[in-house]
Amino acid sequence: MKKHVLKLALSVIAILFIMAFTSTAVFADPPTRFDEKGNETAWSNSGCTTIQSGELYTSDGRLLTTGYDIWGYNYQAHMFNGGYCDAYRDAAWCQPYKDVNLTMKWNDAWLSNTDCSDDGLLDRHYGFLSYIGSGAWLTNHQKGSYIDDAGNSCSWEYFVKIIAAPSDAYKLSGVWFASDDTEIGPAIWGDFAIIQQISNDPCYGDHGLDYLSPDHAGFGGW
Q1: Backbone angles phi, psi at 53, to 5 degrees
Q2: CA-to-CA distance for 166 and 137, rounded, in angstroms?
Q3: Coil, strand or helix: which one is 86?
Q4: What pTM was estimated for this model as a whole?
Q5: Count of structural domains within the chain
């Protein structure tokens, strides 16, 4: 499957795997994440239920464990490594994308590896009404190959980083802007902005950076 066909599809995976297997927790005062010296600590030190407890499940009833599961998710390490269709449990609709390799990484705000809301599921944007202002981010890195119309064997890569819009940001004509009017990036899935896209596909004429947010010019990509 050609890389450019997947550009819209990747945004679906960026949100749906969260919605299906996590819970939303909203609290006015999230548990402290700083030790007595003021150093930030992990959620695992906050008193919330961890994956290691053996008490957390996906919303389809599977027990969560540390390390990679059979599909390629490592919820403890905030990573996915596997086939594009593995991320969707090898769903029938996904078979045209089966030859695509996918790596995802995310932070605690996007998908925590603990349950602070005591519902037995992993939390997302904990302490916030939505992803807005939470600092959540996700990266997708895809690789694949195809035969072009001339019979050439072509390899491609595609990378994108998505962030939650800050609480003081505003959206205009489908683009998120910071409070100082600096462009953050194109809006995607309402609360999020694309801050970087990289495409490499010599057969299709793609050679590197497609987009870099003016507000995140120092981001290093993959």
Answers
A1: -70, -20
A2: 11
A3: helix
A4: 0.81
A5: 1
Q: Residue 178 sits in which domain range?
A: 3-29+38-216
Q: Which residues contact 112 (CB under 8 A, 6 or more apart)?
A: 43, 48, 122, 123, 124, 126
DSSP one-letter string for 173-210: TTEEE-TTS-EEEEEETTTEEEEEEEEEETTTTEEEEE
- Amino acid identity of 8? L
In a domain, 222, yes or no: no
On whether residue 95 sits in a domain, the answer given is: yes
H or E stretch at 18: helix 9-21
Grouping H, G, I as helix, E, B as strand and the rest as coil, residue 168 is coil
- Residue 221 covered by a domain: no
pLDDT in tens, 161-199: 999 999 999 999 999 999 999 999 999 999 999 999 999
